[in-house]
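Lab meeting, item 3. Inverse folding demo.
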């Protein structure tokens, strides 16, 4: 009788664990864009604080690496500042993966310079000429007689892809360009280098750098919302298939649609997809 009682108790414990998930930690791995990274990290911190049984890790290895990680199964969410390329979709299909993009926010790409640079704004054509190496001195755009030091994101970056498409129109950056691995690294390089120019998401603008008007429009949240700022884009979280309704992954990925998610996006400096 005692043995039967012990067995029944164990069965009840196992059943309860299966039903309520007691003692089971669910892990969600996120990898990809350094631009979307701050959103993903803030979402993860908020979600884990309200769901102690969930562990969310966020890495920022670039949009391209995020796509690779999703396809090979090493992450559940790829953060990307661009859509998947054709070859990435083909690789996904080959691996029997259906990538589903979720637009979690909107962003503008700002051109930033050292705070001491007197130049207030540039045209898209002037920015293009700088990055193609046609303009070599700030004097050519109304600034001081000092060399232009062009800083770019690495070519695996979604921010680089957007910049190449919207500003360079597919032409290649000059060979003397310096490449760095994150938007934060561009900001650090620019804030310490008087002749430098770089580009970052508007969420990375702070008092340590100076953002330039482009075609007469300052890269503000309002300008991106109105569609008047010329370099803007959606930001994505990409999942394998659509997350099953009611799962922790579903709740996390769709946090951007909640009031709190929109507050987080706004606080970081990006533009929410919708407002309640």
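The presenter then showed the designed sequence:
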């Amino acid at each position: 009788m005692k043995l039967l009682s012990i067995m029944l108790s164990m069965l009840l414990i196992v059943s309860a664990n299966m039903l309520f998930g007691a003692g089971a930690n669910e892990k969600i791995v996120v990898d990809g864009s350094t631009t979307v990274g701050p959103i993903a990290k803030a979402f993860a911190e908020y979600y884990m604080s309200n769901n102690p049984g969930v562990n969310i890790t966020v890495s920022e290895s670039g949009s391209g690496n995020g796509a690779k990680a999703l396809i090979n199964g090493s992450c559940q969410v790829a953060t990307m500042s661009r859509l998947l390329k054709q070859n990435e979709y083909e690789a996904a299909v080959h691996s029997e993966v259906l990538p589903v993009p979720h637009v979690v926010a909107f962003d503008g790409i700002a051109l930033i310079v050292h705070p001491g640079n007197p130049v207030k704004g540039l045209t898209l054509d002037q920015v293009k000429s700088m990055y193609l190496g046609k303009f070599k001195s700030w004097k050519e755009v109304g600034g001081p007689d000092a060399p232009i030091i062009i800083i770019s994101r690495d070519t695996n970056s979604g921010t680089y892809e957007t910049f190449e498409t919207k500003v360079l129109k597919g032409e290649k950056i000059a060979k003397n360009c310096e490449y760095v691995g994150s938007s934060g690294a561009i900001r650090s390089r620019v804030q310490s280098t008087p002749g430098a120019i770089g580009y970052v998401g508007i969420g990375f603008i702070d008092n340590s750098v100076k953002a330039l008007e482009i075609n007469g429009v300052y890269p503000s949240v309002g300008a991106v919302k109105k569609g008047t700022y010329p370099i803007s884009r959606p930001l994505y979280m990409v999942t394998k298939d659509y997350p099953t309704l009611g799962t922790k992954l579903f709740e996390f990925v769709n946090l951007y649609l909640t009031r709190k998610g929109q507050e987080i996006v706004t606080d970081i400096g990006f533009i929410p997809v919708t407002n309640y």
